[in-house]
Amino acid sequence: MHLAYPAVLSALLFCTGLYGVLARRNAILVLMSVELMLNAVNLNLVAFDVWLSKAAEETLHSGQALTLFTITIAAAEIGIGLAIVLAVHRNRGTADIDKLRDTAESHDTDSPDRDASTAPQAEKAEATA
User: Fold this and answer.
1) Residue 99 contacts by C-beta under 8 Å, 6 or more apart in sequence?
2) Rounded Cα–Cα distance for residues 67 and 32 (Å)
3) How many helices and strands in the chain, by DSSP H and E?
4) Which of 6, 38, 82, 100 could tie 47 with a disulfide, CB 3.0–4.6 Å?
């Protein structure tokens, strides 16, 4: 098989994953898109390893070894990512990335648009400190 076929498939998979990361709002779908991008990289590593091993005399298969390392890192990443998403969902009640960003920005005390009811409480707390 020619090298162009897996390279084109890998590019399509990577672009699909990149679109998923940039366009999705659900954190779990973003993690799935990152996994798709990592699998595209793995496909490239294996395809170029096979292509280069045909051209070289020695066959080290370093691309395949790096692919196994990438799969291990991806498994750890998805485990930690899902744990974080579940913890955030339990605390905030949503896994929507845009809503999480909005709630993080609304807790900013230096913003000029904070409501007047919290201003006296903050001043009272500063005066007692």
Assistant:
1) 92
2) 18
3) 5, 0
4) 6
SS3 breakdown of the chain: % helix, strand, coil, rounded to 5? 80, 0, 20
Instruction: Please give the model's pTM, rounded to 2 decimal places.
Output: 0.71
- Those residues with Cβ within 8 angstroms of residue 18's Cβ, 6 or more apart along the chain or in another chain: 33, 37
Tens-digit pLDDT string for the chain (129 aa): 789 999 999 999 999 999 999 998 888 999 999 999 999 999 999 999 888 887 776 677 888 899 999 999 999 999 999 999 999 889 888 888 888 776 666 665 555 555 555 555 555 555 555
User: ∠ CA 46-43-52 to the nearest 5 degrees?
Assistant: 30
